[in-house]
Design brief:
Helix 1 (8-18) packs across helix 8 (153-169) and helix 8 packs across helix 9. The protein has a six-stranded mixed sheet with strand order 3-4-12-9-10-11, with helices on both faces. It has 325 residues and is an alpha/beta fold. Strand 9 (175-179), helix 9 (184-194) and strand 10 (201-207) form a beta-alpha-beta unit. It is built from 14 helices and twelve strands. 45% of the residues lie in helices and 16% in strands. The protein binds pyridoxal-5'-phosphate (PLP). The site of pyridoxal-5'-phosphate has 19 residues, from helix 9.
C-alpha cells in the first residue's frame, strides 16, 4: 500500500540510511500525565537529538539521498531555525558544504547557534524571502540543492522514522499526538504509523494564532497568512502555495487538527519542566498542552506524544516559570 507515492518500505529505507547520524530517542512513560488522564501516556523525547530537535532525521535522509555529484556541489537552506541547524549539522558530518542564507535582521543568537556547525553563512538580504530566492537561484545556476524544510518525500520519510521507533517501543499504541506546522513531521509519523498499524488515531496540534495549515484546510487550498508572535515560534511559516505532499496527507490522514492557546502552551512547557525536568520549546509542548485539557484523552488508551525540540532561550524559560509558579 502507498500514500502519495510513499510506502512503508521508503520509511524503513530512510531508517537504515540515517541510523548512524541520528539519536534513537527514548519513549518515556509519563507517570503524572498517566495518573491525570487514566491512560498510559508516553513522551517521545526528540529534544535529545544533537541539535535539540527531530529535524536531523529529514535533513539526513535528504542529503544522504543526493547523488555523489550533487553532494559534491554542496547544499543550501534559508531556514534560521531547527531545520537550518539540522542541514548545517548533517552536512558538516558528511563533509558536504552547506550554505545558509539569511536576512540582515536575524538575531545574533540564532546566527551563533547555526555557526556551531560551520556552514558558510551569507547574510546579505533585507528579508528571509529574498534570502530564499537567492538559494533557488544558486540551485538553478550552480546545481547547489536547496534542502526543503517539509514538503519533500525524503524529508517526510526521514521524519517518519521516529514512528518506527515508537511502534517498536509501544506496539499497543492507539493514539499519537504530534505538533503540526508545515506538516513534514506529522505526514511522516502518520504514514509510518498507519502503514504499520492502520487503526492508530493521529492528532495534529498547533497554536491558535498564525497556523497556516489550519487556515489552508479551512480554505480548501494552501493560503498565506500573517505571522503572529507565539511561544510556538517553530510552528510559524507558510505551507507553500504549490504544496505537493503535506497538505493532502494532513487533510486526508490526520484524524483531528487541534489548536491550543498561548496560556495552554505555557502550562505545557511548565508541566514537562516540573514533571520530567525537561526544558522543551513552546512548539514541542503543544501536544502536552492538548493532553492537559480535561476529558480529551480516553482512559485506558495508549498514547505517544511527540516532544519535538528544545530551542528555547533562558529568558523565555524564566518567564514560563514566573507565569506558572
Ligand atoms: C519544524 C518543527 C515542528 C513542525 O514540523 P513540521 O514538519 O513543519 O510540521 C515542530 N516542532 C519543532 C521544534 C520544529 O522545529
Amino acid at each position: 500500500m502507498e500514500i502519495k507515492g510513499i510506502t512503508s518500505r521508503d520509511i524503513w529505507q530512510a531508517k537504515k540510511r540515517i541510523s548512524s547520524y541520528i539519536t534513537r530517542t527514548p519513549l518515556v512513560y509519563s507517570p503524572a500525565l498517566s495518573e491525570m488522564t487514566g491512560a498510559n501516556i508516553y513522551l517521545k523525547l526528540e529534544n535529545l537529538q544533537a541539535i535539540g530537535a527531530f529535524k536531523v532525521r529529514g535533513a539526513a535522509n535528504k542529503i544522504l539521498s543526493l547523488s555523489p555529484e550533487e553532494r559534491a556541489k554542496g547544499v543550501s537552506t534559508f531556514s534560521t531555525g531547527n531545520h537550518g541547524m539540522a542541514v548545517a549539522h548533517i552536512a558538516n558530518r558528511l563533509g558536504v558544504k552547506a550554505i545558509v542564507c539569511m536576512s540582515n535582521h536575524v538575531p545574533e543568537n540564532k546566527v551563533k547557534a547555526i555557526s556551531r556547525w560551520n556552514p558558510v553563512i551569507k547574510q546579505d538580504w533585507e528579508s528571509q524571502d529574498d534570502a530564499g530566492k537567492y538559494c533557488y537561484e544558486l540551485e538553478k545556476k550552480e546545481g547547489i540543492k536547496v534542502i526543503p524544510p517539509f514538503d519533500d518525500k525524503e524529508i517526510i520519510c526521514g521524519q517518519g522514522t521516529m514512528s518506527l521507533e515508537i511502534v517498536e517501543d509501544l506496539p499497543e499504541i492507539d493514539t499519537a499526538i504530534v505538533p503540526l506546522s508545515g506538516g513534514g513531521l506529522i505526514s511522516g509519523v502518520t504514514l509510518g504509523l498507519k502503514l504499520t498499524v492502520p487503526d492508530v488515531k493521529v492528532i495534529g496540534v498547533c497554536m491558535e494564532r498564525g497556523a497556516a495549515m489550519i487556515e489552508s484546510l479551512k480554505a480548501g487550498h494552501p493560503v498565506e497568512i500573517p505571522e503572529e508572535p507565539t511561544l510556538a515560534d517553530s510552528l510559524l511559516g507558510g505551507i507553500g502555495l504549490d504544496n505537493k505532499y503535506t497538505f493532502d496527507i494532513v487533510k486526508d490522514y490526520v484524524d483531528e487538527k487541534i489548536q491550543v492557546s498561548e496560556e495552554e502552551i505555557s502550562k505545557g512547557m511548565a508541566y514537562v519542566m516540573e514533571n520530567h525536568k525537561v526544558i522543551a520549546e513552546g512548539a514541542s509542548c503543544v501536544g502536552i498542552a492538548y493532553a492537559l485539557r480535561k476529558g480529551v484523552i480516553k482512559p485506558g488508551s495508549n498514547v505517544a506524544i511527540v516532544v519535538t525540540g528544545n530551542g528555547v532561550g533562558m529568558d523565555i524559560v524564566k518567564r514560563i516559570v514566573d507565569e506558572n509558579y
